[in-house]
Amino acid sequence: MNSQSELINLRLYIAAGTPNSILAVSNLQAIVDEHLVGRHSMEVIDVLKEPSRAIADGVLITPTLVKLFPPPKVSIIGNLGDKVKVLCALDLGSEL
Amino acid sequence: METNVNRLKFFHRRIAFITVIPPMIQKEQAEGIDKVPTGIPGFDEITYGGLPKGRTTLILGGAGSGKTVFALQTLVNGARDFGKPGIFVAFEENSKQIIANASTFGWDLEALEKEKLFFLDARMSPDLVMSGSFDLNGMLASIKAKADEMGATRIVFDSIDVLLTLLNDPVAERQELYRIHDWFSETGLTGIMTFRTGSDENSSERYGFMQFMADCVIALYHRMVDRISLREIRVIKYRGSSFSENEFPMVIGHHGIEIANIGLSEPEYEVFTDRVSTGVERLDSMLSGGYLRGSSILVTGAPGTAKSSLAGAFIEAACKRGERALYVSFDESANEIIRNMTSINIQLEPYVKSGVLRMYSARTEARSAEEHLMNIRRLIAEHKPRCIVIDPLSAMVKAGGHITALGAAERLIHLAKSNGITLLCTSLLEIRGSLTTEATEIRISTIADTWINLSYVPQGGERNRALTIVKSRGTRHSNQVRELILSNEGITLADVYTAGGEVLMGTLRFEREEADKQAEDHERLETESKKIELELGEAEINAKMQALKKQLEANRAEMARLSREDETRRTGGMKKLADLQRLRRAD
Question: Is the ipTM value over 0.95, yes or no?
Fold first, then answer.
């Protein structure tokens, strides 16, 4: 499969310390640990610390997960509690 | 001692109270509410100062009711006129669209955008994936950082219902709304949120809650009356402040939103005593010199009774005096009017060219009465006329329902009076059967200061124009009906003939005039001849007197001769006797 040979580039915008953001971090970590070991790069941005960056990236709602690579760019809003939806959105439906 | 101190405190308080503070500010201070002016014409008057500072204002309205324009205008005015930068968070449209829309109102957003306005694109992409709940912590933190960076104090969320729909959970919705509300009061930023009503089934529930939460709620309405769009605005609530609770007509015009404020205060106008010419000499004398300056004049009449001509004469007279004038016509172009006026020797073109006169013509159907009024308001501000003609007012107020029309007509008069402008309105008067039907549908005849009625009098196979002054406040005016005659010389008024309780006009009047003239001529001739006759008689008598005098003289001469002869005779006799005695030697 094509996606397996490439490195998936993810970015997670959070507001550190808020319940939804804490959940999002742990939910994403679980998904990554289960499905993407060794084939992803991930960056977590705390909007409370870097607000101008969030504005520049056009991300306002926390938590938001953005898949930057491979295209198409996908944004997922919410605490990522719905694992199936997240995997489908990341084009990892075959992992299920 | 203590009582003295208390008294002193009391005294200080008294002084503070006595200090003269303008009413509006006084009100604000008394209520402890700081307000930010919106700069939207009319709105700051309704709310006694604008929106609550550091609090949440909710703008409710259906699709296309002008919510975004209201919010954006407040932001633009703040940035441009009050030096208060702002942030516009756009959930519905992208910022490019908004900037393009704003440019139609003549707001140069690109110039402001550099430092005083910031547009935040918060539109959700259509292929956005939702997975679990989220909150607005991050968003509010980002906006706060941006606000601090640029010193922004006004924040717009347009529209908040898009964001709430995304939350998809009533409990979360309330939570986030509280979060926003608290965020505004904590940061001291002034928040404006737009909310589209009636968009889905959750709307009413949200609507109720939003109204409860917000400190100030403004509703915008957009209705259709007689196929004409009407807009209204109403302040539903305003925590900690009084406000005007009525619905106010609103217009989205060339420069954005304008609100028709009927004038909350009692009418107080500058009063003039000088008169302005009606442009018709005899009408001036009928009105003891002309219309009162700053008054409103209504000219009513059936079609073709020369209402416009009377209006034209008034405007021409104003231009001749060098006063700036405005002629507003409906469904008739300026050029047509100018051409038609020349036929009765009213020359408007030179004044249009010199800029003294501004002609403005509008289509009736295209706009509501309110919109027309807003246009007139703008023209007054631009042109600064001293005399205005609205020809006809009935066309203007026909558009958009009776209540609006009445209000618009009243506000027009108020507008003119508060600017010291002499206003002449013509109005079509539908004659129903008789001439005595003297009432205007819009009932402005009661608020107009002078009411001139023009009518047709069909008589002897002719229709002639009659002019009556129905009323004229503060003016001793003629109660007589006059015939109005249009000719290529201009407008003239003629006396009408009353014969046997009937007025004569036109040819009948002319015939009567001719007959009278003849009779007069006849009488004059008769007198002449009588005079001559008498003179002759006098001459005759004089001659006779002369003859008699001569005769008298002759008589007297005769008499003198006779008495002389008598004397001679008598003295002759005496002498003869003496001679005889002497001769006879008588004793």
Answer: no
